[in-house]
Design goal:
This protein is mainly alpha-helical. The protein has one domain. The chain contains nine helices and no strands. It starts with a helix and ends with a helix. It holds the Pfam family DUF5995. InterPro entries: DUF5995.
């Protein structure tokens, strides 16, 4: 991730805005996995790996003759970044919308699908507790992301940050926490209703697409 961010920054590719944020938050979670902060660090690591797979499918060149589906929220987010029209904060939020509200649902379905039906209450609580703990890690990295990712690319935002103190970071953390809470619910519903899963995923993509269009106005 760091190498890709550096390469994109060098050529002015604004896709670096989201990836730089994503990289820093991923590094923070990995650090806490290594420190034993999570109940099941192996599961959290698997979640991080699968989550990243979904992102890189949208930016990597596909193998020869391979067809890769890029969901509409990502098409909009990447197009805005490549056009240079969006502000860094818009590009960041558009990327977060696509990756959290869409990719994360699919990631959780992949990980939970094989065990949820047979898992006891204790295991289900462990899974959700580790998932929710990532919210706290995100909150702890909010200042770093604000200073090193967004304001570095939009120095004028520092004036707002100084005036608002930590209010803007708290709003961002609250938004991400709310989105991630919804994502867990969507994923569990999809796991528990295999017959309706495709319909749910389509509806989630449509919702994320509407949100992306609004964020990029």
């Amino acid at each position: 991730m760091a190498a890709q961010v550096a390469a994109w920054d060098e050529v002015g590719d604004q896709r670096a805005v989201f990836l730089d944020c994503y990289r820093r938050m991923t590094e923070a979670v990995v650090h806490d996995v290594d420190a034993g902060r999570f109940d099941d660090g192996v599961w959290v690591s698997a979640l991080l790996d699968r989550f990243a797979d979904y992102y890189f499918l949208t930016v990597d060149e596909p193998p020869d003759d391979a067809e890769v589906y890029v969901p509409e929220p990502w098409l909009l987010a990447h197009a805005a970044a490549l056009s240079g029209d969006g502000q860094p904060i818009q590009l960041l939020l558009a990327g977060v919308n696509a990756h959290i509200n869409y990719d994360l649902v699919l990631t959780l379905v992949d990980l939970l699908d094989g065990e949820w039906a047979v898992a006891d209450d204790d295991l289900r609580h462990v899974r959700q507790r580790d998932y929710d703990l990532i919210n706290l890690v995100i909150a702890e990295t909010a200042d770093l992301v604000q200073d090193e990712v967004v304001e570095r690319r939009s120095p004028w935002l520092d004036l707002f940050d100084r005036g608002l103190g930590r209010f803007d970071e708290r709003l961002a953390v609250r938004l991400l926490s709310r989105w991630r809470t919804q994502v867990w619910r969507h994923a569990v519903e999809a796991v528990e209703d295999p017959a309706g899963r495709e319909r749910r995923v389509v509806a989630i993509e449509q919702q994320c697409t509407r949100r992306a269009r609004w964020l990029l106005l």
